[in-house]
Amino acid sequence: MSTGSSDxxxxxxxxxxxxxxxxxxxxxxxxxxxxxxxxxxxxEPTQPPKPxxxxxxxxxxxxxxxxxxxxxxxxxxxxxxxxDPGEDTAPFDRELFFDPPPMPVVQREPQPEPEPAVxxxxxxxxxxxxxTGGRTASSYDLRLETLVSLEEDGIATAMRESxxxxxxxxxxxxxxPRSVAEISALLAVPLGVARVxxxxxxxxxxxxxxxxxxxxxxxxxxxxxxxxxxLRNL
Length: 234
Known about the structure:
Mean pLDDT: 70
Oligomer: single chain
Helix content: 25-40%
Low-confidence stretches: 1-5, 16-21, 119-126
Protein backbone atom coordinates (compact mmCIF):
# COMPACT_ATOMS: atom_id res chain seq x y z
CA MET A 1 0.00 0.00 0.00
CA SER A 2 1.43 3.31 -1.04
CA THR A 3 0.58 6.52 0.68
CA GLY A 4 0.87 9.68 -1.43
CA SER A 5 3.78 10.36 -3.70
CA SER A 6 7.12 9.30 -2.39
CA ASP A 7 10.55 9.39 -3.95
CA UNK A 8 11.58 6.16 -5.58
CA UNK A 9 14.31 4.38 -3.88
CA UNK A 10 17.61 4.57 -5.69
CA UNK A 11 18.73 1.56 -7.51
CA UNK A 12 22.00 -0.13 -6.90
CA UNK A 13 23.82 1.63 -9.74
CA UNK A 14 22.69 5.07 -8.62
CA UNK A 15 23.69 4.27 -5.07
CA UNK A 16 27.18 3.34 -6.18
CA UNK A 17 27.49 6.52 -8.29
CA UNK A 18 26.52 8.72 -5.39
CA UNK A 19 29.03 7.05 -3.18
CA UNK A 20 31.71 7.56 -5.80
CA UNK A 21 31.16 11.34 -5.70
CA UNK A 22 31.89 11.42 -2.02
CA UNK A 23 35.51 10.60 -2.69
CA UNK A 24 38.09 8.56 -0.93
CA UNK A 25 38.48 8.68 2.80
CA UNK A 26 41.98 8.67 4.14
CA UNK A 27 43.23 6.95 7.26
CA UNK A 28 42.74 10.12 9.23
CA UNK A 29 39.19 10.62 7.98
CA UNK A 30 40.07 13.32 5.43
CA UNK A 31 38.22 13.23 2.14
CA UNK A 32 40.16 13.89 -1.09
CA UNK A 33 37.32 13.97 -3.58
CA UNK A 34 36.18 11.31 -5.99
CA UNK A 35 38.08 10.47 -9.17
CA UNK A 36 35.23 11.90 -11.24
CA UNK A 37 35.41 15.22 -9.37
CA UNK A 38 39.16 15.34 -9.75
CA UNK A 39 38.85 14.63 -13.49
CA UNK A 40 36.31 17.43 -13.91
CA UNK A 41 38.62 19.82 -12.12
CA UNK A 42 41.56 18.72 -14.23
CA UNK A 43 39.58 19.15 -17.45
CA GLU A 44 38.73 22.79 -16.62
CA PRO A 45 41.01 25.25 -18.45
CA THR A 46 43.58 26.80 -16.17
CA GLN A 47 43.35 30.58 -15.90
CA PRO A 48 46.50 32.66 -15.57
CA PRO A 49 47.01 33.91 -12.04
CA LYS A 50 45.99 37.48 -11.41
CA PRO A 51 48.81 39.87 -10.60
CA UNK A 52 48.88 40.83 -6.97
CA UNK A 53 47.11 44.08 -6.32
CA UNK A 54 49.43 46.76 -5.13
CA UNK A 55 48.40 48.20 -1.86
CA UNK A 56 48.15 51.91 -1.91
CA UNK A 57 50.03 53.46 0.94
CA UNK A 58 48.35 56.30 2.73
CA UNK A 59 51.38 57.08 4.86
CA UNK A 60 53.01 59.12 2.13
CA UNK A 61 56.57 59.94 1.37
CA UNK A 62 59.03 60.82 4.08
CA UNK A 63 61.24 63.85 3.51
CA UNK A 64 64.83 64.34 4.58
CA UNK A 65 63.69 65.96 7.82
CA UNK A 66 61.11 63.28 8.64
CA UNK A 67 58.09 65.23 7.38
CA UNK A 68 55.35 63.25 5.60
CA UNK A 69 53.82 64.70 2.42
CA UNK A 70 51.01 62.18 1.81
CA UNK A 71 50.93 59.33 -0.67
CA UNK A 72 50.51 59.76 -4.41
CA UNK A 73 47.07 58.11 -4.26
CA UNK A 74 45.98 60.46 -1.50
CA UNK A 75 47.23 63.46 -3.42
CA UNK A 76 45.42 62.30 -6.57
CA UNK A 77 42.20 61.85 -4.65
CA UNK A 78 42.55 65.35 -3.26
CA UNK A 79 43.26 66.75 -6.73
CA UNK A 80 40.22 65.00 -8.19
CA UNK A 81 37.88 66.47 -5.62
CA UNK A 82 35.91 69.39 -7.03
CA UNK A 83 36.76 72.79 -5.65
CA ASP A 84 34.32 74.31 -3.25
CA PRO A 85 32.32 77.06 -4.86
CA GLY A 86 33.47 80.46 -3.71
CA GLU A 87 31.33 82.71 -1.66
CA ASP A 88 29.00 84.79 -3.75
CA THR A 89 29.59 88.48 -3.31
CA ALA A 90 27.37 91.35 -4.12
CA PRO A 91 27.84 92.76 -7.60
CA PHE A 92 30.00 95.83 -7.88
CA ASP A 93 27.92 98.91 -8.32
CA ARG A 94 29.71 102.00 -9.52
CA GLU A 95 26.79 104.20 -8.59
CA LEU A 96 27.57 103.69 -4.91
CA PHE A 97 30.74 105.78 -5.28
CA PHE A 98 30.41 109.50 -5.59
CA ASP A 99 32.79 112.39 -5.57
CA PRO A 100 33.09 114.22 -2.24
CA PRO A 101 31.68 117.71 -2.14
CA PRO A 102 34.22 120.41 -2.93
CA MET A 103 35.86 122.02 0.06
CA PRO A 104 35.14 125.68 0.56
CA VAL A 105 37.98 127.94 -0.46
CA VAL A 106 39.14 130.08 2.41
CA GLN A 107 40.43 133.45 1.38
CA ARG A 108 43.38 134.40 3.51
CA GLU A 109 44.52 137.91 3.90
CA PRO A 110 48.04 138.49 2.65
CA GLN A 111 50.47 138.57 5.50
CA PRO A 112 52.96 141.41 5.54
CA GLU A 113 56.50 140.36 4.87
CA PRO A 114 58.57 140.24 8.03
CA GLU A 115 61.11 142.95 8.41
CA PRO A 116 64.69 141.81 8.15
CA ALA A 117 66.13 141.20 11.54
CA VAL A 118 68.75 143.62 12.61
CA UNK A 119 71.89 141.70 13.32
CA UNK A 120 73.45 142.51 16.60
CA UNK A 121 77.18 142.58 16.19
CA UNK A 122 79.49 142.26 19.08
CA UNK A 123 83.19 141.90 19.33
CA UNK A 124 86.12 144.09 18.44
CA UNK A 125 86.27 143.10 14.75
CA UNK A 126 82.72 144.27 14.05
CA UNK A 127 82.84 147.74 15.59
CA UNK A 128 86.53 148.55 16.05
CA UNK A 129 86.34 152.15 14.92
CA UNK A 130 83.52 152.84 17.38
CA UNK A 131 86.23 152.64 20.05
CA THR A 132 88.10 155.53 18.46
CA GLY A 133 85.13 157.74 17.59
CA GLY A 134 85.76 157.18 13.89
CA ARG A 135 89.43 158.17 14.00
CA THR A 136 91.79 156.05 11.92
CA ALA A 137 95.18 157.73 12.51
CA SER A 138 97.21 158.69 15.56
CA SER A 139 99.29 161.82 16.16
CA TYR A 140 102.28 159.68 17.19
CA ASP A 141 104.59 157.74 14.90
CA LEU A 142 103.72 154.22 15.96
CA ARG A 143 105.36 151.57 13.78
CA LEU A 144 104.78 147.84 13.99
CA GLU A 145 107.91 147.26 16.04
CA THR A 146 107.43 150.31 18.30
CA LEU A 147 107.33 149.36 21.98
CA VAL A 148 105.10 150.83 24.67
CA SER A 149 105.37 150.22 28.40
CA LEU A 150 103.27 151.12 31.41
CA GLU A 151 104.15 154.33 33.31
CA GLU A 152 104.67 154.29 37.09
CA ASP A 153 101.27 155.80 37.87
CA GLY A 154 99.68 154.53 34.68
CA ILE A 155 97.25 152.12 36.33
CA ALA A 156 95.80 154.78 38.64
CA THR A 157 95.43 157.23 35.77
CA ALA A 158 93.84 154.59 33.54
CA MET A 159 91.28 153.70 36.20
CA ARG A 160 90.12 157.34 36.29
CA GLU A 161 90.21 158.48 32.68
CA SER A 162 90.51 155.53 30.22
CA UNK A 163 87.80 153.52 28.50
CA UNK A 164 87.30 149.76 28.74
CA UNK A 165 89.22 149.19 25.50
CA UNK A 166 92.11 151.35 26.69
CA UNK A 167 92.24 149.48 30.00
CA UNK A 168 92.64 146.26 28.02
CA UNK A 169 95.89 147.70 26.61
CA UNK A 170 96.99 148.66 30.13
CA UNK A 171 96.50 145.06 31.28
CA UNK A 172 98.59 143.79 28.35
CA UNK A 173 101.48 146.14 29.19
CA UNK A 174 101.37 145.57 32.96
CA UNK A 175 104.20 142.99 33.05
CA UNK A 176 106.54 143.94 30.18
CA PRO A 177 106.62 146.22 27.13
CA ARG A 178 104.51 145.33 24.13
CA SER A 179 104.90 146.21 20.48
CA VAL A 180 102.18 147.87 18.45
CA ALA A 181 101.82 144.76 16.27
CA GLU A 182 101.49 142.54 19.33
CA ILE A 183 98.81 144.73 20.92
CA SER A 184 96.85 144.83 17.66
CA ALA A 185 96.99 141.04 17.33
CA LEU A 186 96.04 140.34 20.97
CA LEU A 187 93.07 142.73 20.87
CA ALA A 188 92.07 141.47 17.37
CA VAL A 189 91.65 145.02 16.07
CA PRO A 190 93.09 146.72 12.98
CA LEU A 191 96.44 148.47 13.30
CA GLY A 192 94.83 151.87 12.84
CA VAL A 193 92.54 151.33 15.83
CA ALA A 194 95.43 150.08 17.99
CA ARG A 195 97.52 153.15 17.07
CA VAL A 196 94.69 155.55 17.97
CA UNK A 197 94.10 153.88 21.36
CA UNK A 198 97.82 153.87 22.14
CA UNK A 199 98.12 157.53 21.14
CA UNK A 200 95.37 158.45 23.60
CA UNK A 201 97.08 156.49 26.40
CA UNK A 202 100.43 158.19 25.64
CA UNK A 203 98.75 161.59 25.78
CA UNK A 204 97.17 160.75 29.16
CA UNK A 205 100.53 159.60 30.54
CA UNK A 206 99.42 156.03 31.05
CA UNK A 207 101.98 154.35 28.77
CA UNK A 208 105.41 155.44 27.61
CA UNK A 209 106.68 155.29 24.05
CA UNK A 210 110.04 153.73 23.13
CA UNK A 211 111.80 154.71 19.94
CA UNK A 212 112.91 151.20 18.90
CA UNK A 213 112.70 147.60 19.96
CA UNK A 214 116.37 147.23 20.87
CA UNK A 215 117.88 147.30 24.31
CA UNK A 216 121.21 149.06 25.09
CA UNK A 217 123.05 145.75 24.99
CA UNK A 218 121.61 144.65 21.65
CA UNK A 219 118.45 143.17 20.27
CA UNK A 220 115.96 141.70 22.73
CA UNK A 221 115.26 138.32 21.13
CA UNK A 222 112.14 137.43 23.19
CA UNK A 223 110.70 140.81 22.37
CA UNK A 224 111.44 140.41 18.69
CA UNK A 225 109.78 136.98 18.75
CA UNK A 226 106.64 138.48 20.27
CA UNK A 227 106.66 141.15 17.59
CA UNK A 228 106.96 138.47 14.92
CA UNK A 229 104.07 136.52 16.44
CA UNK A 230 102.00 139.69 16.48
CA LEU A 231 102.74 140.31 12.82
CA ARG A 232 101.67 136.79 11.91
CA ASN A 233 98.38 137.15 13.79
CA LEU A 234 97.40 140.34 11.99
